[in-house]
Amino acid sequence: MDRLPVTILLPLLLLFCRSPLSFHLIADLGFTQKTSSRIRGNPVTVMGLPFSSGTRSIISKLTSFPILLLFLLSCFSFTSTEAYDPLDPNGNITIKWDLMTWTPDGYVAVITMYNFQQYRHIQAPGWQLGWTWAKKEVIWSAMGSQATEQGDCSRFKGNTPHCCKKDPTIVDLMPGTPYNQQIANCCKGGVINSWAQDPATAVSSFQLSVGQAGTTNRTVRVPKNFTLKAPGPGYTCGPAKIVKPSRFVTADQRRATQALMTWNVTCTYSQFLSQKTPSCCVSLSSFYNDTIVPCPTCTCGCMNNITHPGSCVEGNSPYLASAITGSGKKSYTPLVQCTNHMCPIRVHWHVKLNYKEYWRVKITITNFNYRMNYTQWNLVVQHPNFDNITQLFSFNYKSLTPYGAINDTAMLWGVKFYNDLLMQAGPLGNVQSELLFQKEPSTFTFDKGWAFPRRIYFNGDNCVMPPPDAYPWLPNASSRPVISLLCSIIALLICLAFLLSYA
Ligand SMILES: *[C@@H]1O[C@H](CO)[C@@H](O)[C@H](O)[C@H]1NC(C)=O
Ligand SMILES: *[C@@H]1O[C@H](CO)[C@@H](O)[C@H](O)[C@H]1NC(C)=O
Ligand SMILES: *[C@@H]1O[C@H](CO)[C@@H](O)[C@H](O)[C@H]1NC(C)=O
Ligand SMILES: *[C@@H]1O[C@H](CO)[C@@H](O)[C@H](O)[C@H]1NC(C)=O
Ligand SMILES: *[C@@H]1O[C@H](CO)[C@@H](O)[C@H](O)[C@H]1NC(C)=O
Ligand SMILES: *[C@@H]1O[C@H](CO)[C@@H](O)[C@H](O)[C@H]1NC(C)=O
Ligand SMILES: *[C@@H]1O[C@H](CO)[C@@H](O)[C@H](O)[C@H]1NC(C)=O
Ligand SMILES: *[C@@H]1O[C@H](CO)[C@@H](O)[C@H](O)[C@H]1NC(C)=O
Ligand SMILES: *[C@@H]1O[C@H](CO)[C@@H](O)[C@H](O)[C@H]1NC(C)=O
């Protein structure tokens, strides 16, 4: 008898977890940053389950159904996004320190940053790397980088170090630095490309000569508390771990040398740390309905002249030029055009044409930020038809398949020297492309908003979608299924009732 509820519940739960129902449920709650963090915090209350002592006994019975639990878990894991990106599960920036030679009072190290993130890059004004020395180390000299502040070097007579601070901050040098101050992979103004866009430029290196440090691998102390700014917050770095020394093979492959000692630091990104409000939103339209669904109002802030005068600028304002050059130019806070959503970036998805075997979408990315030209921008789009994308105009494409079999995620980015620069707000502040998809007869439909994307990221940050019940309708769609939170809860309660009566 114990098997019966499983056979009933499995398909039910399967339906619930993988059907639009759960999608709607989550969307109903507003899949914005604030609510999703609440979802992460307490997934159980989200599902509206009253977890009383009575239900706990069910849970203990549930443990006898490992498969069931697996499904339940997969249900909840859908909303789990904390510092972990489901589309790029291994994304991280790894900082590797290779000690190359010992010096009379320390060592020379080559420090290399690898951006292993598929679609998150560091753009101008570039990275800032900081740490705290474990002892009284100083930086005698730097190649391919510089410390932002020298600090107090008054205790040194004669030679003065490059930096005496206990917690130095290092920045990259600009392109065009004299060759005698460069090393390989340096001097790109702190810009690091994403791994998917170009692995060759997803690396940044510099060299430091460190003094007053240990001079053997037993006396050297690894620095602590690494911080990576890009240049704002968002990255969290772990402790340095001593690893197997790196090997360097010469160009002709005939000799290999190795570092005296190597340690690695891994930094991961979290959008929740990076900014309090979203930075991007999505608007939708289609050929079959005149309605243009705008970005949700106040997605990235609200236009409010009373509490925040000057929080945005009208496009035709005479005060525009002075606002752009005025105060705040150095702070990287966006100066946005006044819109209902107030986002720096809007992505518009237009379902443009319907052919017999194909359908066509036009994507437009618009920059509303007067303070930013987005260089090497990228877009990640999730839509089930990406496994049959046939043609793509004027953007680069790479399929991202973090889970192997499901090919529904694409990374798009600009063509070099053509549209890889998304200009600041204004007449040139947009880029666009068209995508041609081949229809898969078994899944293709214009109904129920199927033709619209499931998820969009701009430069790795989640773009807020309009609520699903606002999507443009097919003209002949008589009525849309009304799926409310209440319905979902009732469905789940029915499941529980089944469990109670059979378990
Ligand atoms: C960092 O990313 C690389 C490449 O994806 C991966 O091999 C490595 O395991 C990651 N490190 C951590 C600590 O996640
Ligand atoms: C230090 O060097 C010795 C021999 O040179 C080696 O056996 C030891 O593993 C090294 N220790 C570390 C932490 O690299
Ligand atoms: C490093 O960070 C930890 C926690 O943030 C802090 O307790 C510690 O004092 C810091 N160490 C140094 C040397 O700054
Ligand atoms: C340290 O980082 C380098 C560069 O990313 C990598 O090749 C190496 O495998 C890492 N070592 C460990 C033990 O993670
Ligand atoms: C905010 O102020 C600007 C200029 O003072 C004005 O043009 C704009 O209409 C105001 N917006 C609202 C929503 O009141
Ligand atoms: C963006 O680029 C244009 C053309 O290169 C330049 O005139 C403008 O000042 C740049 N804007 C910003 C905010 O850097
Ligand atoms: C995903 O589908 C597209 C279009 O058919 C194809 O070009 C791409 O290679 C596929 N990617 C993978 C990893 O199968
Ligand atoms: C769409 O892609 C899938 C997986 O790559 C393939 O099996 C199917 O045949 C394709 N459909 C069409 C109409 O090309
Ligand atoms: C277009 O879609 C909207 C919902 O966004 C709906 O209210 C409207 O009736 C639709 N128009 C037509 C002609 O079906």
UniProtKB/TrEMBL annotation:
GO cellular component assignments: plasma membrane
Keyword Magnesium: no
Residue span(s) of domain COBRA C-terminal: 279-472
Pfam families attached to this UniProt entry: COB_C (PF25079), COBRA (PF04833)
Residues spanning the signal sequence: 1-22
Transmembrane parts of this sequence: 482-502
Family in the record: Belongs to the COBRA family.
Alphabetical list of PANTHER family matching this protein: COBRA-LIKE PROTEIN 4, PROTEIN COBRA
Protein name: COBRA C-terminal domain-containing protein
